[in-house]
Design a protein that fits this description.
With 331 residues, this protein is of the alpha+beta class. It is built from six helices and 20 strands. The strands form three sheets. Strands 8, 9, 10, 11, 12, 13, 14, 15, 16, 17, 18 and 19 form a twelve-stranded mixed beta sheet that branches.
Length: 331
């Protein structure tokens, strides 16, 4: 266990030194005594949402739960766990100071998440890790530049990087090509789709009408279609006018979601590439609206709100469950 003047060893050096000079820091951490191992274990989580797309932030400095796929599934379970679309784990030790790992609700890891990055940025600000309004977060899908427009982090813009439509970069099976307006048959329906990556893969289907039924019916089939060797996120899009689109979302590893930052960027990017909208687009999701801006070189910026729900502590019982494969926690 950490002593009063000690800090978790994985914190950035500068921050660790600052915290070591603050004796009250460790007094603020939630600590549980776990019977049977004689150790004090940290157990804190924070919950946020971005237009209903909810994530738990687990900071290794304040929670020592090992994030195995079983543990992530248990935590994200909306009936037996805390419930979330995913888990944001960080900051973790990496070449960049603010490195983020992103977990889907099914326990798999995601390369990038627009809403997840914006939520994590707010957490970094609230936790005192950053004191500036502009900084960079490293994800497996690339570095993301963040601009906190509100002092409390409740509104932010992120530079999501450049779109690519090339099959080998998304990836999509078949010969090298830009994947635009191709056709695929799922269940009883032939659909026209385009594919794009913004650090993670997306399949975009433009329809005259979209609703949750379409997303729940065809989303899970497209997610695991053999065309997409790494599975894919899926967006069903209705173009309202040159500045507005409406989308329904099926997220890889999480299922139907009320909003998604990277999905909003992907959908807007495809519609823009096909000539259906301007450079600045408002994306209307079931959870609310996000603003997307696309440059001539296909670089994309995402802007929207982040709301704090609260912080909590895993119970001793739940922590014991998380250290075992799901289904063995009560043995």
């Amino acid at each position: 266990m950490f002593g009063r003047r000690e800090v978790p060893p994985h914190l950035p050096c500068g921050l660790a030194m600052d915290l070591a000079e603050s004796p009250s820091f460790l007094d603020t951490l939630p600590l549980f005594f776990i019977p049977g191992n004689g150790m004090l274990c940290m157990a804190e989580y924070h919950k946020y949402h971005a237009l209903g797309n909810d994530y738990l932030v687990i900071d290794p400095a304040t929670c020592d739960v090992p994030l195995t796929p079983d543990a992530v599934r248990a935590i994200c379970d909306r009936h037996r766990g805390i419930g979330a679309d995913g888990v944001l784990y960080g900051p973790v030790l990496g070449e960049r100071e603010w490195t983020l790992r992103i977990y889907n609700a099914d326990g798999s890891e995601a390369e990038k998440s627009g809403n997840g990055v914006r939520i994590f940025a707010r957490y970094l600000s609230e936790a005192g890790y950053v004191a500036t309004e502009r900084f960079t977060i490293a994800t497996p899908g690339g570095e993301v530049e963040v601009h906190l427009e509100a002092a409390d982090g409740s509104v932010s813009t992120v530079d999501m990087g450049r779109l690519t439509f090339w099959s080998q970069e998304i990836p999509v099976a078949g010969p090298p090509r830009e994947v635009l307006r191709e056709r695929v048959t799922v269940a009883d329906r032939e659909l026209e789709f385009s594919a794009v990556s913004i650090g993670n893969p997306h399949c975009v289907v433009i329809l005259d009408e979209v609703d949750w039924r379409v997303a729940r019916t065809y989303g899970p089939l497209l997610e695991v279609h053999p065309l997409f060797p790494n599975r894919t996120n899926v967006q069903f899009v209705r173009v309202l006018d040159r500045k507005n689109i409406r989308i329904e979302i099926w997220e890889r590893g999480s299922g139907y979601t009320l909003a998604s930052g990277s999905s909003s960027c992907a959908a807007a990017g495809v519609v823009h590439r096909l000539g259906g909208c301007d450079h600045e687009i408002t994306v209307h999701t079931p959870g609310g609206a996000l603003d997307v801006r696309i440059a001539d070189d296909d670089r994309v910026w995402l802007r929207g709100p982040v709301n704090s729900i609260g912080r909590g502590e895993f119970s001793q019982e739940f922590k014991r469950i998380l250290r075992l494969p799901v289904g063995r926690g009560d043995s």
